[in-house]
Known about the structure:
Layout: H1 3-18, H2 25-35, H3 41-50
Amino acid sequence: MSEQEYNILRSSLASTYMEGFPVTGQTETDCLRLLRGEISVADLVKEICARPSKAV
């Protein structure tokens, strides 16, 4: 991934955060895995659904 692509990702995550959605380190890691082609969207959705939910 190029530096420009990484900066675009960071900008997108910052925008998401400003809209009021939680953006964690795990969120960034998941996005990077998708962008690098390390995991499919379907498999990532399965992983996320299997993660324990965190009560607020």
